[in-house]
Predict the structure of DUF1877 family protein.
Amino acid sequence: MGVLYDYFRAATDGEAVDVFDWPAGPTCRPPGVEPKDSAELKNIDPHVMMGTLEALLTGGRYEDITARPRHSAPLRFSEDGGQGVMTVTDEFTSALAATTDDRIRAVAQPWSETEEFWGHADPADLAELLHDLRDLAVRATRHRHHLYCWMSL
């Protein structure tokens, strides 16, 4: 099954950390709690794969991108490391929000060829995921929210 990653938007780090206690992350809210606006990206990790994606989108250096203090910074993790909430940088959120459909299709091909996908990624499928993530970034930007990642083993 692998590691599951869901990306979501929240106004603050504290609001984002609240998702840690939800039964299955941002897509499975407790009764009486407002749902989180989210995108399920299953096996797309916020550090390496999203760092590579940001480098492809912006032309920035991967090393500079992943050195940012809020690049997949842990906000809360279980003691066994099996579940956690991490930050996504505002720089990446802004770059995603500004990405056109044509740019998404152009980036999906080289991103699919990175070693983290082990040659099993379909660029069309990745482009579809990127559209969802871009749309989430647009909504986050519009509401002055940040993006976050919830993960579970």
In short: The helical segments are 13-18, 48-58, 62-66, 90-97, 101-112, 123-142. The longest strand covers residues 4-10. The two ends are 9 Å apart (CA to CA).
